Amino acid sequence: MKYFMLALFIVFSSMSVCEPAPTVLLLNSYHPQYPWTAKLTDGVVGALIHIVPDENIHVEYMDSRRFSAGKAYKEKLLQLLKYKYKFYEPDIIITSDDFAYNFMLENRQDIFPNIPIVFCGVNVFDASVLAGKKQITGILEGMEIEGNLKLIKQIQPDVDRVILLGDTTGFGLDMTSEARKLKSSWQDPSLQIEIWDTFSFEELHNNVSQLPHTTAILILAIHGDRLGQYFSYSNDLQALSDISSVPIYGMWGGMMLGNGLTGGLVNDPFEHGQQAGFMALAVLAGTSADDIEIQPKANFNPVFDYELLKRFKINFDLLPNNSVIMNKPVTVYETYKQEINGIIIFFIALILIINVLLFNIRKRIHIEKELDNLNKNLELKIKVRTQEINDRNHELEHAHKKMQQLANTDVLTGIGNRRAAQKEMDAYVKRARIDKAGVCVALLDIDFFKKINDHHGHQAGDDVLLDFAQVLKQALRPSDRVYRWGGEEFLILLPNTQLDFSNAVCNRILSHIRKFNFKQVGAVTASIGVASLNETDTVDTLVQRADEFLYKAKDAGRNQVVMN
User: Which of 16, 389, 484, 541 is deepest in the core (most CB within 10 A)?
Assistant: First the structure.
């Protein structure tokens, strides 16, 4: 995937700066507070954000889970989208979940004729519906009912009945329909399947509180009960789990895990949205949506809640080998891993030092015996000493050459030092004046670096500087240059770059820094001052102006870019 993203970055970086940035419309079936939708949206935006400007990512919520999905409601949504995007047409549309997908299949030619569509989160899919339709691809969420039934039987061998919970609303009805098909073809007589989809919440609570231990529950999809009361996975699932006498399993990890779900084969909405975002980037880069194969199913992986496994006395040894267990107590070693490893390394180093000392003592005894023999032959001694001097001279010559090589390299970070920066800046500035090309210089300073040294020690500070240099190198273009200017200050040289594009580069750098987890320290931010070469600039005045803007960035609250 990283090579796929790199290729897309190169394609978009090669675009003319005069070309308008692409616009993406993300059409969500549900509301923003719905955990699945929130995490899926984060995944889509996370995939797009380095290529598509934030203001060009339009996110709409159709709220079909809380409101009626009938014809009148759809007509109102259609009128709203027509009005909003009449003069602002997106370059591509991403739909999440079944309602938005079906809505666009019905209305695309009326609202956004021939605009490519990438869908995700679709659970009930009929390939024949796409016959004759162009520029549509995506990734199916699918469902994992059968896999979860087998998983339940594996980890709870005594279970002889599984109750599938659903409802009779749009998506819930689709899920229970699929479940009934599975039930009719189920071949395992040791496990009976039962479907509950018409109940009030009061009836449901009473029934699940009295189930025998040989029963388990698998939630399909619940939007509400038969009385029309809304079901919230954030609140109602936890209440249901608290009174249930048996474990509750499910498939939708992003909104159920941590809210009373014992576990199951679950999917990750963030990963799902991210994959859809990558597909959209491929289309924006020039690949036809018709040439991108529809992915048939999302990833469903075994994830469980430690406390609920313990509550229902489920044997951990029966869990799949690749299981992830949430809320598992941390061992003493995991808590003090760094300290324990540090002590082990200290004792290993101590043993090595003792061995070196013993080796040197034995070597000294041997040398003393050698000296006794050399006293018998002065000429031989002189030759040996002369040879030693020659060897030392060779070592000094080698060290001198090595020092010359390192003269322009920062010892700690391995990147260019201030001396290298001054030499290369002078050459780039001269070249820019000949080619009439732009050159920008950015001075970057780690925010509150003194606190890192004071609170975590200078070794932690050195580790931050080393990791920081690597983050900068990864965030920059191949043509950009980065140097350690001094202390916690770095200088970035942006050849053939105008001031407006340098702003995008520097903000991308800040984004990489914010996301990186620095050892022992965690999150770190930085401030950046940027100056663009003008006709009267020298290297010194260019750097001086960048330094002035750096201090303005710090005075303005840090963690930002300030430029002329």
Answer: 484
